[in-house]
Design a protein that fits this description.
The chain is an all-alpha fold. It has one domain (about 10-95). It has helices at about 10-35, 40-65, 70-80, 90-95. Helix 1 (about 10-35) packs antiparallel against helix 2, helix 1 packs antiparallel against helix 4 (about 90-95) and helix 3 (about 70-80) packs antiparallel against helix 4 (about 90-95). The protein is elongated and about 50 Å long. Its main location: membrane.
Length: about 100
């Protein structure tokens, strides 16, 4: 796990996992608490964290894609698309990022 912090792709993989976990916690914990229990506190806390992780993942993907000359049609667009699909970052980490 510590090896992931040493490379830019490793850090992108960590962002992908954190972004996916933040979405899971938002969808499975915060939103149900808001609508079923009338407590919007967790949405207010987790929502901005998820949004920040989402943007960090998006900008880092573009940055690494340009820096490492990824072919846009083969890698970059798939990684970018993954962050728009719920839980797509888990899939893209497993399918593409872990092999780079």
């Amino acid at each position: 796990m510590m090896d992931l912090f040493k490379t830019k792709i490793g850090r992108l993989r960590i962002l992908a996992i954190l972004e996916g976990i933040s979405l899971l916690s938002l969808v499975c914990i915060a939103v149900p608490m808001k609508y079923w229990m009338g407590n919007p506190l967790f949405v207010r806390l987790i929502g901005p964290v998820h949004g920040t992780l989402f943007l960090l993942f998006l900008f880092n993907t573009l940055s690494i894609g340009v820096e490492q000359n990824w072919k846009f049609k083969e890698i970059t667009w798939k990684v970018i698309l993954a962050c728009f699909i719920p839980f797509g970052t888990f899939y893209i980490d497993w399918k593409i990022l872990s092999k780079l």
